[in-house]
Amino acid sequence: MLDSILQRKTDPVCTYKIILSDKILSERKDILEHIRRHSKIWTKHNPSDTSYKAEWKEDYLLLKCVDPSIYNNATEEITIEELTDTISKSPKDKATGPFAIPNEVLQHLPPSPSPIY
């Protein structure tokens, strides 16, 4: 829907063959099976490696040369003016965030959005 609003067109992905290290797949059923298998493996659960935790612990300690007062206003509420200004300065044609809303759509919001509850 957003692509049609923004008049963006995407070309479909066409896979006529897959070149592997030991063979070339060109039969439709083999290609689909390979893609299915690859997607299943690629998206499997991958727990983080905690063996490096101790090695990096010191790097995550607070720096003595940084004044902790710089974080005092980090929890203040964001104003509508700050939000509007940030959205208006956001570049177009960039990857979306986790909500998949492109900057172009956000920039077309009304100047004073209604509260979200």
From TrEMBL:
This is Uncharacterized protein. It comes from Gigaspora margarita. The lineage of its organism: Eukaryota, Fungi, Fungi incertae sedis, Mucoromycota, Glomeromycotina.
